[in-house]
Amino acid sequence: MFDLSKCDRCGECFVKCMYVDYSQEEAVKAITALVEGEDAEILTECITCMACNEYCQKGAHPYDLICRLQEEKGIVLVSDETLTMIENTLSSVPHKVSEGEPHKSKMFDGLTVVKGGDYFSRIVYLHTGMESVVRENAQRFVDNLARLGKDEVILLHDDCYTLLAKKVYEYGIKVPFKPIHIVEFMVNYLKAHRREIIKLDRKIAYQRPCISRYTPEKEPMLDELFELIGVERVVRRYDREDALCCGIGLSKVDPERCMRIVDMNLSDVKTHGAEAMVFLCPSCYYFLSRPCEERGVASIFITDLCRMTLGEVPFSSRPPLTSKYLS
Q1: Is 310 exposed, middle or buried (0-12, 13-18, 19+ CB in 10 A)?
Q2: Residue 79 gets which letter from DSSP?
Q3: 185-309: CATH class
Q4: CB atoms within 10 A of CB 235
Q5: Rounded Cα–Cα distance for residues 248 and 262 (Å)
Q6: What is the pLDDT of residue 220?
Q7: pLDDT, tens only, 149-164
Q8: pTM (2 decimals)?
Q9: Which long-range contacts (CB under 8 A, 24 or more apart) does 171-179 make?
């Protein structure tokens, strides 16, 4: 939620933006216009990566203001085809609850796994300038998970974790269970099974999800995970606070701009010697897997990376959307 009391209109949020080229003066004018509810070019130039929330050191959350104004002014930055695809996917995946098999020894065997439209948070609509959809569905999402009767719920997707760990409090919703990020679960599992770890000794790049801008505090946890696995997260230009969006939202409405972002990102990966790109977001994984592999870079979902270090699967590129633990 945008906090006007913390915004001093310094403009740093837009000066640092990697998708526009604003001077300090232009940035100050832009944020001032937004605060006053006026039109500004940033509303249509924004690619909805949410980075300005992290760039703002005062905690004002300027992206939340952008998102609100985009909705109020009817500015939708994704195609109708994409919106239809999102809703069809969220609504049509069959509801399923699969009980775990605790007597088996693999990493995820003991977990009860749920999937389907009842367990999609719809926070993806923050990427479309339609936060009202997130707000309207948040309570239902929490209630559906609460009916499972679990004290803890592990969230595979950063989107769902962000809703439960951050956004619901803006909406006045209480969460009657503890949300656990998938990375936290994997770190704890690997610590408890250190003797089973086979260090992978590989160089990897990490594709940071845009929604991670709301939970940057988990970066040290990711570093701990990669250290346990024995992979080096290469130091590169477009990582951490400077991470690039995967570009999927632009693929239909501005494919040229989309491919520029993809090329910047993957050229950076190759330049710094990464053998694989590791993904936490299924959409990023789906969209960038083929471009990665065309450049000789393996594409690996983060849960598969952990299974590789435990010897459950070999180190290799995983075909898009076929990972057992991706859905």
Answers
A1: middle
A2: -
A3: alpha beta
A4: 9
A5: 9
A6: 96
A7: 999 999 999 999 999 9
A8: 0.91
A9: 171/135, 171/138, 171/139, 173/138, 173/139, 173/142, 174/142, 175/142, 175/146, 176/142, 176/146, 177/145, 177/146, 177/150, 177/151, 177/152, 177/153, 178/151, 178/152, 178/153, 179/152, 179/153, 179/155
Q: Which two tokens stand for residue 39?
A: 């039109």
Which residue's entry shows tokens 């403009």? 11
* pLDDT tens sequence across 10-51: 999 999 999 999 999 999 999 999 999 999 999 999 999 999
What is the overall mean pLDDT for the chain? 91
Q: Where in the chain is the domain with CATH 3.40.50.1860?
A: 185-309
Q: What is the DSSP letter of 241?
A: G
pLDDT at residue 195 in the model? 94
The one-letter amino acid at 322: T
The packing angle between helices 182-192 and 219-229, to 10°, is 40
Beta-bridge partner residues of 279: 207, 301
Confidence of residue 136 (pLDDT cuts 50, 70, 90): very high
Q: How far apart are CA 15 and CA 185, in angstroms?
A: 37
Residue 42 in tokens: 């940033």
> How many whole angstroms separate alpha carbon 26 and alpha carbon 45?
14
Q: Residue 298 is encoded by which pair of tokens? A: 């393996």
Residue 278 is given by DSSP the state: E
| Per-residue DSSP letter, 217 | G
